[in-house]
Amino acid sequence: MLIKLQNKILEKIAKGEPLAETVDYLCRTVEAMVDDTVCSVLTLDDFGRLHHLSGPSIPKHYAQAIDGLCSGEGVGSCGTAAHRGEPVIVTDIETHPYWAAFKGLALPLGFLACWSTPIISGGKVLGTFAFYFRKKRGPSEVEQSIVSACVHLCAIGLEREMRLEERRRLAFTDVLTGLPNRTGFNETVINEDVTRNPWGLLLIDLDNLKQVNDTFGHQAGDDLIRTVGKRLQRMSGSDTAFRLGGDEFAVIVRGTDCVDLGYHAAYVLAALKEPCLCAGQTVYPAGTIGGAIARKDQTVDEVRQNADFALYEAKERCRGQFIEYTAGSGSKIAKRFRSFQQVSEALRERRIKTHYQPVVDLATGTPIGFEALSRLATRNGDIVSASHFHEATTDVHLACALTACVLDNIARDARDWLDRGLEFGKIGLNVSAGDFLDGNLAQRIVGAMEGAGISPDRIVVELTESIYLGNRERMVIDQIKQIREAGMLVALDDFGTGFASMTHLLTVPLDIIKIDRSFIARLLVEQPALVIVEGLLAMSKSLNIRVIAEGIETEEQRNLLMGMGCSQGQGYLFSKALSRDRVTSMMSHRRSGQTHGYGAGELPLFSLSASQ
């Protein structure tokens, strides 16, 4: 009978059946085997507290009374057994001092004696297995053998449960900080219910983790993350603060605190700013926070998305501060965020395409280059121009990734055209401020082009003056010098729209200026525009800087520009931006001497850009 019971319990444990149900089955079976006994199994936590696990014949009020009781000498039979790590037999509960504080619970139930045996594994007490007797007596030899088997089975079950619990803990815990991780956050936040308890969400992004990693090493970065994790846990609690990954943290704000998220966010920001020691270096942590309050008509996912929107906006507008999502600002934030997501997904899925708009000799219409323009292919095949996702390019990292993608496309397409014997002239590549941050822009362009067997002097690097405003100017000028030394040309795009364009002609080494389309559009209707363009052309000629007019749409504009001495331009009068296949076809027709097969406003031409 005992062997059969052992096999049954081991089978239940192996199948992973709930431990409480398995131990309940064990207790009921043993109670049926031994007359006039009641079984009880308690577990012992790391703080020495006892917890009711099983006891199918134990009344609910009794189980509740002893649950959470601290083990110790003289704390009943079970508390003493757990404390000593050895069996404790009390043959008379009514008179024994161990039961003085508890006999009022036991005697009315007919429990007159109690024998408790510790459940031990690896030298650690995991719990207790107890027999309550309805007579004043101790255990028989048969009962001792039964309990010995039961204690062993309980130890196996508890060991397995501990391993499972540890695996669950590791799966839900960030190793570096000890905070719940993204999985733990998802499990926690899904259970939030605003109808029972108001709640809000703060999403925190560390601003200087990359700088700390790059300056002091990754050990310092890890120390910074650990420090921030400890501070958030100290302020918020282990079930409220989370590390979502990288430099991202989250805090759930519950109850009346979420009425004023700004107050709580300010408290978090103040705590983060305190200096800390990271790999022996003094570091001042900094973070940006976005937050949202849960509304009764919102799902958990909507609250999370709103907090994401707010964080994205805070990172764009006011790093180091807090922005709370509001319905009034939602559409603007959402548009920006969706643009960011759209481009990020397109880059991952290789759906960023490069189209090419010709730059032509105005007198002959002969193509002299192409401007490469980013296009996004949707999952259903539609092509979206960059103006529809321009918001995404305000993010430095995303703009850099977009430039890198366009550069790879240029190298691939240029190689293909040369292999076909098609001459394409020079190609202009628009770059962003973020492309200058690492100081290696020239090397990256040269590497991409030479990797495809293309000479770097085929590239015209196009930039806007916003790239070198402020304290970045010296760094940008140094890299422009490297770009020109590598044989590439440098063009200043959208010339005339910035407040310091003329100044930059003196300080920045340039080969080309591109007159902004806004001036060309006003040439025929506004005298000031005509005067400004004439002045720019005259000045550029004296400085030996080439001029390209952008946005030419009519023959009248073309003729007026040529009359003022402008010889190169681009715009819809000549061609819209075309796919690489269309450009290839046009150049092939041109080489073979054919002039037919082109659509309206399509000429075979050349120059490249990633931001239009």
Automatic annotation (TrEMBL):
SUPFAM superfamilies: EAL domain-like, GAF domain-like, Nucleotide cyclase. It holds the Pfam family EAL. PROSITE patterns: EAL, GGDEF. Residues 336-591 form the EAL domain. InterPro entries: Biofilm_reg_signaling (IPR052155), EAL_dom (IPR001633), EAL_sf (IPR035919), GAF (IPR003018), GAF-like_dom_sf (IPR029016), GGDEF_dom (IPR000160), Nucleotide_cyclase (IPR029787), Rev_trsase/Diguanyl_cyclase (IPR043128). Residues 197-327 form the GGDEF domain. It comes from Allorhizobium taibaishanense. This is Diguanylate cyclase. It comes from the Bacteria.
